[in-house]
């Protein structure tokens, strides 16, 4: 089930998106979004007798984290190597504020404090219920679904500060979307799911979740052993190799098999 958050010009609604997704991650022209009674994380999936053509709706970030976005650094060995870092012996966590979240089509603003803004395409896990100390074998019980993320990073600030807070915390530095897929389980695919990033139409990242150093159950277990996770919290699972700079006017697309495509342009603040 693809759960979206959207607007047709009035207050945001939640809905279920129907229709096929093509090989480019785009929904078919006859796709519709059927409105829900409220946020399914809290009221469940209650369909209303109200639907809209998907092309007539503006998709928003599919989830607004109530408390936090938890990022995982260096979770692909090749990415750790390209950054000149060792692979961590346990998941490397950092936090992005929920104010960094934007949706499909929203601009990523290039702050004046940086001269080296990078894209990082990632699979994102959306937590479905309050949880703490979740065993890895029970991780799927607390996962609501999956979406796509771009973990935007001011690389020069990351190097200068020696930690990730400012470099990854600016407003608009966490695009999410286009929806949450509740039926996808990357762990069931032997070869993982493909994660690709395109910069102005050119492939710059092409990896698979099978190459993660720590898999999704391990990440949920590790994060929840440190902090309580709330419904709507998001875990970013790391990025494949191929990260690089983007400039004002660039268009970044992150595509993940089974999820679709998240597209954002870089703009001046």
UniProtKB/TrEMBL annotation:
InterPro entries: Fumarylacetoacetase-like_C, Fumarylacetoacetase_C_sf, Rv2993c-like_N. Residues 1-62 form the Rv2993c-like N-terminal domain. It comes from the Bacteria. It holds the Pfam family FAA_hydrolase. Keywords: Hydrolase, Metal-binding. Residues 68-266 form the Fumarylacetoacetase-like C-terminal domain. One of its GO terms (molecular function) is hydrolase activity. This is Fumarylacetoacetate hydrolase family protein. It comes from Nocardioides cremeus.
């Amino acid at each position: 089930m693809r759960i979206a958050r959207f607007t047709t010009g009035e207050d945001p609604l939640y809905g279920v998106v129907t229709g096929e997704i093509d090989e480019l991650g785009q929904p078919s022209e006859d796709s519709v979004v059927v409105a829900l009674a409220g946020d399914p994380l809290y009221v469940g999936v209650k369909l209303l007798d109200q639907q809209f053509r998907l092309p007539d709706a503006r998709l928003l970030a599919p989830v607004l984290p109530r408390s936090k976005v938890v990022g995982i650094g260096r979770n692909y060995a090749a990415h750790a190597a390209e950054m000149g870092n060792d692979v961590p012996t346990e998941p490397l966590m950092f936090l992005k504020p929920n104010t960094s979240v934007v949706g499909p089509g929203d601009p990523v603003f290039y702050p004046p404090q940086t001269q080296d803004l990078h894209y990082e395409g990632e699979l994102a896990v959306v937590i479905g219920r309050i949880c703490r100390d979740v065993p890895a074998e029970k991780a799927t019980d607390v996962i609501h679904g999956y979406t796509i993320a771009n973990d935007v990073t001011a690389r020069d600030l990351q190097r200068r500060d020696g930690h990730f807070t400012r470099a990854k915390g600016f407003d608009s530095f966490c695009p999410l979307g286009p929806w949450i897929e509740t039926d996808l389980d990357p762990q069931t695919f032997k070869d993982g799911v493909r994660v690709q990033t395109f910069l102005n139409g050119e492939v710059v990242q092409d990896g698979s979740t099978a190459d993660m150093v720590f898999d999704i159950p391990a990440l949920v277990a590790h994060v929840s052993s440190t902090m309580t996770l709330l419904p709507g919290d998001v875990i970013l699972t790391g990025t494949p190799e191929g990260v690089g700079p983007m400039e004002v006017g660039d268009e970044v697309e992150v595509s993940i098999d089974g999820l679709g495509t998240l597209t954002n342009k870089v703009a001046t603040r």
